[in-house]
Amino acid sequence: MPMILIAPIGEVDETPLKRVADFVGAYYSRFGLSTGMLPEIPVEPFSRAFNPIRRQYLGRVFLPTLANLRKRAGGTAILGVTEVDLYEEGLNFILGLANPSLGAAVISLHRLRPEFYGKGPDEELLKERAVKEAMHELGHVFGLGHCPNPRCVMHFSNSIRDTDFKSPLYCPVCEEKLAKNLGVLV
């Protein structure tokens, strides 16, 4: 059965990780995809991605390693989940990144945590945000672009408020594209 692999990178809080795996698994099962959790990947192999001035990791460096892991494990797609702060050139930060041709995506919990914004810890909010970011990046892996519908999970988040506003699900237009891209009739 085709599978979406979830790979914790470094020490990752198990609570949002489990919620992501459960939600993604339940949602994508309707398209004939299962999910599987891989053992933790150490952060050290990605040390070349670390920018000591920014104190962030360049997101794109994670994707080829994840893609190789996906191929070795026989997965259809792979989602890396990490606690480290990610960025891309020209951007202050990214919440996640995907490359459809590699079948790989990565999300960071770092800026999804309410504590990052001076709030108290909120495990439920963290889990909701992690699910939305996972669904968004997996949508990209499966060929979806950004959506103009602000409630669709594929809507681009300019801020954490945008993430909080959108749903964890694809709008009907994006879901139809997703089904077509996956070769499934819904």
TrEMBL record:
Origin organism of this chain? Thermococcus waiotapuensis
Q: In the UniProt entry, which residues are flagged as the active site?
A: E137
* GO BP term, example: proteolysis
Which positions are annotated as binding Zn(2+) 1? Answer: H136, H140, H146
Name assigned to this protein: Archaemetzincin
Q: How does it assemble?
A: Monomer.
SUPFAM superfamilies, per database record: Metalloproteases ('zincins'), catalytic domain (SSF55486)
Q: Does the keyword Zinc apply?
A: yes
PANTHER family in alphabetical order: ARCHAEMETZINCIN, ARCHAEMETZINCIN-2
> Which residues bind Zn(2+) 2 per the record?
C147, C152, C171, C174
Record EC number = 3.4.-.-
Cofactor needs: Zn(2+)
Q: Which Pfam families match?
A: Peptidase_M54
The role this protein plays is: Probable zinc metalloprotease whose natural substrate is unknown.
Q: Name one GO molecular function term.
A: metallopeptidase activity
Q: Which domain of life is it from?
A: Archaea
Q: Which family does it belong to?
A: Belongs to the peptidase M54 family.
